[in-house]
Write a structure and sequence with these properties.
binds acetoacetyl-coenzyme A, alpha/beta, three-stranded mixed β-sheet, 464 residues, Peroxisomal Thiolase, Chain A, domain 1
Length: 464
């Protein structure tokens, strides 16, 4: 029998600065950001689903965010460096074209655990836009399933700073953060099924050229790529799950009925909500319950019923909105997906770190609420522009709630301060503060970037 392998613990690092896009209690009230961008704060809160976006301070880059998340994970679990076979990093905002973030993180951790303490621990940087976390995790799982771990664990950390040009449509979907996963045999949180679905195409929906610090994006096209790739990956996962007998849907049942909590890549919460709606439509079509939905909101639009592609896309978008308002959709969404999206509403996009950060929020919220998830099967859907999606499933383990209650995720979201628009724009553009300040908020017992030499080499230290 295959060894049970999966996620034993999760640690999230969230920068302590944010820009307020909308006041959640008074969405109609203009914010400094919405006034500057001549936009409606309700569009941020209800249109895309983001209230605040996390902003890194001057001493934070993707390596620092990762090292802080990993250090917390190791300390909380008393992980000895010698017990770690690999510390792999997933990122699309690395700090060097050659030296991986994994090597800089190695160096930072050795400042705490001793020089040479991680010499027998490997590390690599994975890149495929936001989906690289799934690739990194899959590699660690394969290695453990192949029987190569010899009792050692691995850490997978996704870290990113999502940045678009000032005033661009993507700007309100920025954010930053890191999430570290302890991957072990007989995990306390989630045992992952050896069934992973993939869908990949060469697409031009979003990219960041070597000369640019901000991403180029074809926004509306990227949404369509996300939905198409996610559906393809989930179909590929479903074929394998059925063939291997992991899930058997009976008459009148949908595969989704057999999946409880779910987390998706979240560029902004509305996108993940739409992805879930798209999948439900896909899996409910032909079932008795779909007849009830159609009776309520009419038949789905079909492309050949429209002369112009734009007319069909408009009809499709309207239909999606109507479906998302049905009580059938709302019941599933609130039960399975919504709790995790609170992370993205409060923090924005963190690219490769987004899906597992939302999973952390989902598990912590359900644990605090006393929901019984032990033994339930859940699902993860990752998307990376360019483009690729991965779909996987896992079973929640007996000890999950004790573990999830210690994440401290909601507390980290509370322990932050807003920045003014002027501070945000200075940080975004990497300019000096006119009053000579070196940073906005004092570091709090964490790794910081000290300087970057004229040759581009980076120095880090732990600020006590
Ligand atoms: N109140 C409530 N809702 C409002 C509103 C108001 N006052 N004004 C507008 N809205 C709604 C709109 O109706 C629209 O809803 P639907 O999408 O359901 O139609 C929504 O707010 C967005 O408004 P716009 O259509 O005007 O779109 P925009 O020009 O603001 O751009 C975006 C939105 C394309 C997502 C843009 O933010 C963007 O380019 N983001 C970056 C790319 C991205 O995140 N793509 C997602 C898939 S790619 C991916 O997942 C990888 C990744 O991480 C980047």
């Amino acid at each position: 029998m295959r060894t049970k392998v999966g996620i034993d613990d999760i640690a999230v690092y969230i920068p302590r600065l944010y820009v307020e896009l909308a006041d959640e209690n008074r969405p109609e009230k203009p914010t400094e950001f919405s006034m500057a961008r001549k936009s409606d704060p309700s569009k941020y809160l209800h249109g895309i689903g983001i209230a605040k976006m996390s902003i890194p301070d001057t001493y934070q880059d993707s390596a620092v965010l990762a090292a802080n998340a990993i250090f917390e994970l190791m300390e909380r679990n008393n992980v000895q460096p010698s017990s770690l076979a690999r510390i792999d990093i997933a990122t699309e905002t690395g700090v060097d074209e050659s030296k991986p973030v994994a090597a800089y993180v190695h160096g930072m951790l050795e400042q705490k655990y001793g020089k040479g303490s991680l010499n027998r621990t490997s590390g690599v940087e994975y890149k495929f836009a936001c989906v690289s976390i799934a690739d990194a995790l899959e590699s660690s799982l394969d290695w453990a399933w192949a029987g190569r771990s010899n009792g050692r664990s691995s850490i997978i950390c996704a870290t990113d700073i999502a940045r678009y040009p000032l005033t661009s449509p993507g700007e309100p979907t920025q954010g930053a953060g890191a999430v570290a996963l302890l991957v072990e045999e007989d995990p306390r949180l989630l045992a992952i099924d050896p069934v992973i679905g993939t869908h990949m195409e060469d697409e031009d929906d979003f990219w960041r050229p070597l000369f640019s610090t901000t991403a180029v994006v074809h926004g509306k096209h990227s949404e369509r790529c996300y939905l198409r790739a996610m559906e393809g990956a989930v179909d590929n996962w479903a074929e394998q799950a059925i063939a291997s007998g992991i899930i058997n849907a009976g008459p009148g049942e949908s595969l989704v009925d057999h999946i409880g909590p779910m987390s998706f890549h979240v560029p902004y919460p509305k996108m993940a909500e739409k992805a879930f709606a798209y999948l439900l439509r896909h899996f409910w079509r032909g079932l008795p319950r779909w007849k009830a939905v159609v009776g309520e909101i009419s038949d789905e639009p079909k492309a050949d019923g429209y002369k112009k592609r734009e007319e069909f896309e408009k009809a499709e978008a309207d239909y999606m909105k109507r479906f998302m308002e049905t009580h059938e959709f709302q019941a599933e969404y609130l039960d399975k997906v919504a709790d995790g999206l609170v992370h993205a509403k409060e923090s924005g996009n963190s690219y490769s770190a987004s899906e597992k950060s939302c999973l952390s929020m989902l598990l912590e919220t359900k644990a605090m609420r006393g929901t019984d998830l032990a033994g339930k099967r859940g699902g993860s859907g990752n998307y990376g522009s360019g483009c690729k999606a991965k779909a996987s499933s896992w079973t929640v383990q007996e000890g999950w709630a004790t573990c999830a209650k210690k994440f401290g995720h909601a507390e980290k979201l509370r322990h932050r301060r807003p920045v003014s628009l002027a501070e945000y724009e200075i940080l975004h553009e990497g300019k000096p503060f006119p009053d000579g300040r070196k940073f906005v908020a004092e570091p709090e017992s964490e790794f910081v970037l000290v300087d970057v030499t004229s040759q581009g080499y980076r120095h880090y230290r732990f600020a006590d």
